[in-house]
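Hi R.,

Here's the chain you asked about this morning:
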Amino acid sequence: MRPLLAVTTLALAATPGLADGHKPGDDDTGFGAPTYGEVSLVTNFQPDPHTVRVEAGGANLATYTDQLTGNRCAGYFADAPDFRLNFTDGDLGYPLSFYVESGADTVLLVATPDGQFHCNDDYTALNPALRFDTPRGGAYNIWVGTYSAPNGTFPAADLSITEYEDIAPNFDRAFFGNDDRVVIDAATAPWNMIGFLDLSEASCTATLIGPATVLTSAHCIAENGQIVTPPVEFLAGFQNGNHVARSGVAGYHVAQGYLDGEQEGTDYAFVYLTEPLGERLGWMDVGLLTPAEISALQSGTGPDILQAGYSYDQQGTLTGNLSCPFLGLAPENVLVHQCDTLQGDSGSPLFIQDGNRFRIIGVESRTDPQPEQDYDRNVAMYVDYVLRDLNALDQGGASQPNK
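And here is the predicted structure, written out as tokens:
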């Protein structure tokens, strides 16, 4: 799961543009004829939603940058739009939303009638969506891209257009049938050691692991080997606009393996604070599971695995799981679990109680789609590599902070 805001209206400029440029056809919009057709809809249209099946992706890798926030959205797109909406607006005050449902990791790109580009990657699990609160009338050119290179196989995707107030996602697959999250008292230990990591115009979850160090996900800060959203501030025990303590950021270290493109096992980062908040609030330990603990967890008799973060669907509210099912450790430093998590939970800790202290055993990373299975696969980074990197940094080894 990468680190994007909940569905918003974004004003984007392509940097760079589609690899071969948009290739105008005979249409009036200048973007070329849409591959899967077009529809004319008047506000208050029925049936709602209007859905069309497309094949996602294309040959052109492009990154679109939000002109307002600086967030970036990358994917593989076709030259011509996949679909076009010719929309007639009215005075009813309805929003206009676009969303995609697919078994693949898709990216949604929309050129609005004013010529602006808007883009979203993950809204519900790996499915993107965009909402326009005051939609303009005119032509909306729509591309459904893929996050990964199609390699000649273009996955099926359902593109839907709706005026409903809320896009009501189905979280059954993300929540393994039931949402077991509870609202956490963020002002009390150990939850006050978890906080909201402000990335200026995006956010993730992070946890104190030392007097002035917090642990989070690498993808919150870096993308395609580049630092794109450096951390700005950490608010410990953040809940509904209030916080227990806050600190600016003195620097950070993103796992070098992640910057080198070795995502598996290396999706973690350390953020160094200007204020030693841990001296007042305490911090969590980072430690491996013992063989006995792993065996007990696999048999269902192990310690409770706890997790808490700032899920996008309850923004600003710390929610968590008090007993996550443990599925096992996988190759390349991966911990597979069934904590109920969404975007925004990236960087959140999976931890167990260890006497009167708490031990982080995993850092929430992503959800892998498994369309042929009952549920998707939730992945955290097991802390083996985290511990090695911490030790190397403490020893002044080759793995030095990158800011």
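One quick note: The CA atoms of residues 225 and 259 lie 4 Å apart.

Cheers,
M.
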